[in-house]
Amino acid sequence: MNLLRDLFDFFLPRTCHICGCRLRDSEEFFCVRCVESLPRSLYHHSPMNPMERRFAGMVPFVRATGHFIYSRNSRLASAIHDMKYRRFPNVGRRLGEIVGSELLSAGFFDGADVIVPVPMHWFKQARRGYNQTDFIARGISAATQLPVSRSLRSCRAHKSQTSKTLAERQANLAGSFRVADPDALRGRGVVIVDDVCTTGATLRTLAEAVMAQVPDCRLYLLTLCVTI
Ligand SMILES: [Zn+2]
């Protein structure tokens, strides 16, 4: 088995999705140095952090954080691009594992019962072949042992959100999500997971849809990355 892996590695060497260096056997998608140097927000250490301020007074939630700081020029950008557009969904799973284990030891998931990825409209998912957020959720699940529930649905394909104001994004998203299986979330601590939080419009709309259908669940809002 090792021989097969060594042969594979010789012809198709595995490289770090951030710095491009060749990976060691124990490394997956990223080298240890890159994982250590990723820009962390550390928002989960502070109540009313900038992420929580984005949602305060709009939707009820227990905790909210975005784990890595994201910008177009950041070291993380190439990994996010690979995850979303270059058919490397397991980059998302690996990042989810990192986020999950770091937040687990900090107590972020205390009281949480289930992880729910932000759904992608079926047409967009069929075109891309996967929903990267689902892979992030799987990684968080592997680190926390919390189960993943795919009880949310994206009802319609909304237009691109880039270059829209927050109000335009909200209007664009209104009525986009529904809970297909409310019983799976009733009375539970529900961690909603998304890839990147920019204005927070998607998470806010989704949280409103969940609370409208399942008013007794407790929401945790968690994104892999957050823009500042
Ligand atoms: Zn690296």
Give a summary of the structure in a few sentences.
With 228 residues, the protein is an alpha/beta fold.
Structure description:
By secondary structure, the protein is of the alpha/beta class. The chain has nine helices and six strands, in the order H-H-H-E-H-H-E-H-H-E-H-E-E-H-E. It has helices at residues 2-11, 32-37, 50-55, 77-85, 89-105, 122-128, 132-144, 166-173, 201-213, and strands at residues 63-70, 114-117, 152-154, 177-179, 189-197, 218-227. The strands form two sheets. It has a four-stranded parallel sheet, sandwiched between helices. Strands 3-4 form a two-stranded antiparallel ribbon. Helix 9 (201-213) links the parallel strand 5 (189-197) and strand 6. The radius of gyration is 18 Å and the shape is globular. The model has no long low-confidence stretch (mean pLDDT 89). Zinc ion (ZN) binds next to helix 2.
Supply the number of structural domains: 2
CA radius of gyration is 18 Å
Strand order of the largest sheet: 1-6-5-2
The total count of strands amounts to: 6
Instruction: Provide mean pLDDT, rounded.
Output: 89
At the fold tier of CATH, the topology name of the largest domain is Rossmann fold
CATH class annotation of the largest domain: Alpha Beta
Helical fraction = 25-40%
Structural class call reads alpha/beta
- Helix/strand order: HHHEHHEHHEHEEHE
> What ligands does this structure carry?
zinc ion
Unreliable stretches (pLDDT < 50, length at least 5) are: none
β-sheet strand percentage = 15-25%
CA-to-CA gap between the ends?
A: 45 Å
Give the overall silhouette.
globular
Number of helices: 9
